[in-house]
Amino acid sequence: MFSKRSIRKNFLVQLIISSAFLILTFSSVLYFFIEKSIYDDKHTELLTYAQNIVNNKSIFNNDDGSFMENFLSLNVGIIYLKNKNIGVAEYETSKEKRTFLTLLYPFNLKNNSYLKITKDITTTKRLLKKIIRYIFIINIAGFALVILYAIALSKMLVRPLKIINSKLANMNEHLIKPINTERLPKEFEPLGETINHLISRIQNFVKYQKELFIGTAHELKTPLAVIKLKNQVTLIKKRSPEEYIEALQTTNKTIDEMNIIVSNILNIGRQEGAQLDKPTEVDVIAILRQKANDFQLLASNEGKELHMNFEPDGYMANLQVSLLNQIVQNFLQNALKFTPEGKSVTLQSRQDYGGLLIEVIDEGCGIDESVDLFAPFKRQGNKQGVGLGLFLAKSAADALGATIKIENRKDGIDGTVASLQLNSKLSCIIPRND
User: Fold this and answer.
1) Domains observed in the chain
2) Dihedral sign, CA of 326, 332, 336, 337?
3) Angle of helix 321-338 versus helix 389-400 axis, rounded to 10
4) What does the DSSP 8-state code read for residue 159?
5) Cα–Cα distance measured from residue 10 to residue 154, given in angstroms and rounded to the nearest whole number
6) What phi and psi, each to the nearest 5 degrees, are found at residue 432?
7) 215, 220, 226, 229: CA torsion to nearest 10
8) In this prediction, what percent of the chain has a pLDDT beyond 70?
9) What is the pLDDT of residues 377-406, one digit of tens each?
C-alpha cells in the first residue's frame, strides 16, 4: 500500500506513535493521580483515627453512616519499639489475598509506645485494578480510533497531491490542462500556480519550437535556393570578370543573411542556458535607467528622442539580469526602428497591484493585433529583421515568470505599447526601497 518513501506512510507512523505516546502518558498520569488521591485519603483517615485516640476522642464520627464498615476493617493496637522518635510511619502488607495499610503513630514517647492502626484496603485495591483495566480498554479503543483517524486524515491530506498527479499523468501537450487551484486547499495554491505556470511554459515551448524548426527550415531553404540558382545561371555560359564579381557579391549577401539567421538561432540556445543562471537581487529601476542612458545616444543620432519616467525610485527583485536586459533591449530596438525621425520613444515603469509594470511606448506605425508577433520569424512592417527578437523576449519573460504584451496605443496617437509585467509573486519581488 505504501512505498518506503511514502509521505503518507511517514505521516501515519509519526501520528500513530505520537498519539500512542500521548495516550499512554495521559493515562499513566491520570491513574497515578487517582491512586495518589485515594491513598492520601486513606492516610488522612488513619491519621485522624490516631489523633482521636491520642486525644481521648471518639475514633469515628457519629454522623458517619459507614461506622460498621470502618469498624470491621480497622485493627488498633499498641506496640513498643526499640528505636526512638521514628515519627509517623506507614506501610502496606498483603496476607491471604488481602491487602492492609498500617500506620504507626507516637502514643507515649517515654516508653516508646506507638499506636498501630491497620485498615483492610482490599476493596480499594480491587477498585484500583478495575480502574487500570478500564483505562487500558479505553486506551485500546482510543488507539484504534487514532489509527482510523490518521488513515482518514492522511488520505484527505494527500488528495490534493493525487489531483495534481492525475492532471500531470498525461504529458501530451495537447491534452494537459491547467490545474483548477480553486479546488485545492490554500496551502497547495502556490504549488498549483507554479505547476500551471510550468504547464503554460511547456505548451508555449512546444508550440514555438515547432514553429521555430519549420521557420528555420523555410528561412534557410529560400537563400540556399537563391544561391544555387545564381550559380547555375552563372555556369550556363562564360561571363566577364565583372559579372562573376557581381554574382559572387550577391551570393555573399545571401550568405550574410543566412549567418544572421544562424546567429539568432544560436542566441536562442544561449538564452535557454541563461534561464538556468542563479537569480540575483537587483534594483530593476537602476537597470532601466542604465538601458535608457545607453539608448539615448543612439536615438539622438537617428534624430529621435528617448524619454524616461520611472516610478518608484527603487524596486528590488530577485531575477536573472541577462533575461531582463534582453527584453528591455528588444523593446527599445523595435521602438526606435519603427519610430520616424523627429518622433519620440518613452521608457517608463510604475508599481501596480501585480508588481512592477515596465512599458516602452513609441510613435510608429502600429501593429496588426491579430498576428502573433511572438511566434518565430513573424515580421511586421517594411523594416529589415529576422523575426526572432520578440520570440526571444517572450521566452525570457516566461523564464522570469513575467507577462509580456504588445498592443496599439489607445490615446489616439499612432504607435505601440510593449509592456512587461514583473509578477511580485512568481518573480520573488523584494519590497522596494523608499
Assistant:
1) 7-145 (no CATH), 198-274 (1.10.287), 280-423 (3.30.565.10)
2) positive
3) 150
4) H
5) 10
6) -70, 160
7) -110
8) 77
9) 666 655 555 567 787 788 888 878 888 889
